[in-house]
Amino acid sequence: MAILIFGKKEATTNFGICFIYILSSSSSTSYHYNQKQYIVADLQKLAPKSMDQNQSHLIVVEDYDNGLSTTSITPVPHNCLPTIIEIKPYKKKLYHIIKRYLWIAPFMVGCLIPSFCLLIYVTKLFNDNLHPIIPLISDLGAKPPVAGYIAQIFDSIAILNFITVWARYKQVKFYIEKYFNNVGIGISQRLKRNNRYFAIFGCGYSLGVMILGNFRNTEQPIEHGVGFVVMTCILGEIFFQANICNKLYSFKRIESQPVTIRFCFWLIIIILFMSGVFITISVLKLDSISLWLDNNQRMNWQPHQPGYIWFTMGTFLEWFHVNCCSLYFFSISHRMHLFKQWHQVK
């Protein structure tokens, strides 16, 4: 921990910092004089304007190597220096602890996605007809009472994804500032641009999830469709995150190659395309496109009716695509969990 004495006569900054003592890690009885500029700079923000600079003060400030938090600002006489060893560090600040566990946010998203799929399908098995064997997720999620739970789950996913995007954006920004300042302006600028686009598309995905979950397909199909279109921003989120991870590893061997993230990106694109093709064919097999907009027809599609097989294959791929997103969030969670410098992220 860092021990600082304030006094106007010996002032070396606007707030009168005159001594910085760093507790030695090798011996609990010896102290080393070490003027760390980054600690001094941050301490200036901590010092209250009302502090009497004619009087000496003892301050325990954050040690950036260990993440220790500010403990006290106490007036003391100069002869207290021999007793500094009796001071014990306080617990870390709450936000330090929170930042260490931000990896839980994407992990929870990865768990919630298959959980809500399981919830609505189990509900179908107990309360619905057998066919269609695999309905649209939007149709199953629109039925009460499960519709209320689905809306809350989707809101939770949106909020947790927003936290994930914010935390990952800050983490990548830290990498750029610490490791890429001297690499080259072009590389640094590309990383910053990709990080910015990642944040934009990530926020778009959260917005789409909230719209999709709160406007039911059976009641507000237009708004629901808009939510689905906006929700495809996850492709941009994954794409730019893959680019970021690739550059971090290629130039500085930070983290690892984005194999899982790339796999998820291409798998989701292929599955979405195939699902769209199959569902389009099933709609064209109907006597009229208006039948597709009929909730009763769509939610009770029977095997003997035209387009049933195509519809089933399309909805199966839809369910598969949604659950593939969990792999991406688990990968991001793992990368955030391995990051041990959260206390340095501002």
What distinguishing features does this structure have?
five-stranded antiparallel sheet; single chain; alpha+beta; disordered N terminus; CWH43_N; membrane; DRAM/TMEM150_Autophagy_Mod; transmembrane; 346 residues; elongated
Q: How would you briefly describe this protein structure?
A:
This protein has 11 helices and 5 strands. The protein is an alpha+beta fold and 346 residues long.
Task: Give an overview in words.
- The chain is an alpha+beta fold.
- It folds into 2 domains: 2-92, no CATH class; 96-344, no CATH class.
- It is 59% helix and 7% strand.
- It is built from 11 helices and 5 strands.
- It has helices at residues 37-46, 94-100, 104-127, 137-140, 146-179, 185-214, 221-231, 233-252, 259-285, 295-299, 308-338, and strands spanning 2-6, 17-23, 31-33, 57-61, 73-75.
- A 5-stranded antiparallel sheet has the order 3-2-1-4-5, covered by helices on one side.
- Helix 8 (233-252) runs antiparallel to helix 9 and helix 9 (259-285) runs antiparallel to helix 11.
- The chain is elongated, with a radius of gyration of 28 Å.
- It starts with a strand and ends in an 8-residue tail after the last helix.
